[in-house]
Amino acid sequence: MPFMPVKFNLPKRVKLAQGLWMLYWFSVIVGILIFSLGIFFKIELRKRSEMMDNNESHLVPNLLILMGMLACGINTFGGKVCHDCLDPIKFTKWKPMLKMYLLLCCGFSMLLLLTALLCILMQFAVYLTLAEGLKNGIKFYKDTDTPGRCFMKRALDLTQIEFRCCGNNNFRDWFEVQWISNRYLDMSNDEVKDRVLSNVEGKYLMDSVPFSCCNPGSSRPCIQHHLTNNSAHYDYDLRTEELNIWMRGCREALFSYYSSMMNSIGALVFATIILELADMAGLKYLSTALETMVDPENPECESKGWLLEKGIKETFTELLAKLKMLGKKTNQVEEGRDATVDTT
Amino acid sequence: MALMLIKFDLKKRVKLAQTVWFMYWFAVMAGVLVFSMGLFFKIELRKRSEFMDNNESHFLPNLLILMGLITCVTNAFGGKICYDSLDPSKFAKWKPMLKNFLVSCMCFNSLLLMTALLCFLMRIPLQFTLTEGLKNGMRYYKDTDTPGRCYMKRTLDLMQIEFRCCGNDNYRDWFEFQWVSNRYLDFSSKEVKDRIGSNVDGQYLMDAVPFSCCNPSSPRPCIQYQMTNNSAHYSYDHHTEDLNVWKRGCRDALLSYYGSMMNTIGALVVLVTILEVAVIIGLQYIHSSLSTLANPEDPESESEGWILEKTVKETFTDIMAKMKAMGKGSKVEEGGEAVVATVS
């Protein structure tokens, strides 16, 4: 009993072939879209790799680029097959490869599923990389004279301005790090000496933040220094002052940016899987409809199309039986070979 | 002696009609482009109208939008004429209006050229508007509690960050305005009272700039306050310090931004004018070649096409003579009225 059989006559077959051809071309465009989204994601990761210690994983974008190219190639081939299938001569040359092609499509859909899952799951890795990278970024903020780190200040300032965030978790992270280089500290000054000595590690710590933490939406000029000292500024209370500097931490801001990007890409890949399954079903119907023509010489005869030749259970048991046979054959051949080697 | 005479047979006429049809559709797209450039320019002016005192002239973008629409309509009509020109029955209905259409296209072209010229000249009034607007912007920077001006601070800060500029001509403009609101000044403090007293207008002036003037590429944390006092900061000389705050003035920055936009749009309009001239010439050839068919019944007969029926000089003298005749015709009317007056 075939699975989901459908009767076909010539107009129906032609319609199926045309519809399937358009669907394949739509899938090619979707493949190009996935490819370009992979490139976009890769570029976005590279742009901010300084915030991730230059050690972010490019697995997901590379996989997306590869999947995009494969999707284009596979779907173009499928479209070509559809285009040729209404001409019996051309179709006979494609006929033998169709089964392999459908298996290949199955495998590709599995890979797409894996890619979509990775898109969703790799967000954890991005989160951890960001936490580490931002901590180091804040630590190396002052090292504008150290080769390899001299642009960290600029990158972090621009990130804080662009993403409207301050520090790793919040602005207090800046209080724990010396973010002014010793080159600009007057070590002969008593105040500086006091501050440096009051600290175990000899760091010049302040309750101040860099200018890039300032919120332009504040109604008063930005208060960057002596943030915790309410009496240092007129009419200022740290606990109620919300608009002075950005309250959000940069790890959260960057993570939400990347996570929304990865979620959208993951959703698109899921949609592509469904599209690929539709393509495969359509092609299966078309190939079975063309193979079961009652009278091969007459193109206008009726035919039947199905998804599976037998029911799902029977197909499954057959597959298992085939695998077992394959297993037995290889075992027997190997044992036979070992036996002959032993006897000689 | 016709200007630039060309002989046409059926094939050549068909090719000409097809080419001119393509050119008309390309010109329609160019018209859409001019329309969208006008819209884009209008939006950009509106976005920053706060820095132009909300009184910037929208004449140029409105003119571009109008020109774009007229271009689309005129060229679509021309394309329709070309499409119909190969069918003698359809062409016969367009024939009487062709001459008027060509003349109106010529007038429209001169309008386009005038628009392009305006694009290049609008820079000058824009400069004055920006100077005035930015000066007021800085004056109202502190008025974050005055309705209608409460967003000036935010907008000016975001603009200085985005365009990497400070002040009107340079950062010293900020020294001439009080940009800290009186709400945040402690009038009981001696220092504040001294500063206000030392000034004729009673303004709290400082040699300080807002945080949005800070340059993130500076190797040291931003020095915003006491900028002209070298001894207030360690190892600081404001004469040699290049990277601390943005050196460029915002008027220059905005002017170069809008200037390059207007130059590009102007160049594009000039190109569209050249395209329009080409399609007018093409249509004139079609018109003249279809009017001079050796045998009107036989579509395959030969014909001649030209740009002007007589030479340039003769056409010019003809036009002058016609205008004189029209002038004399109105004199005849006057004479007629005089006769009527005397009779009655």
From TrEMBL, chain B:
UniProt entry keywords in alphabetical sequence: Cell adhesion, Disulfide bond, Membrane, Transmembrane, Transmembrane helix
GO biological process: cell adhesion; visual perception
Domain of life: Eukaryota
Gene Ontology CC: plasma membrane
Keyword Nucleotidyltransferase: no
Compartment(s) of residence: Membrane
Entry membrane topology: Multi-pass membrane protein
Primary subcellular site in the record, as a coarse category: membrane
Spans traversing the lipid bilayer: 20-41, 62-81, 101-121, 265-286
Cross-referenced InterPro entries: Peripherin/rom-1, Peripherin_LEL, Tetraspanin/Peripherin, Tetraspanin_EC2_sf
Family to which the UniProt record says this protein belongs: Belongs to the PRPH2/ROM1 family.
PANTHER family: PERIPHERIN-2, TETRASPANIN
Protein name, per record: Peripherin-2
Native species: Monopterus albus (Swamp eel)
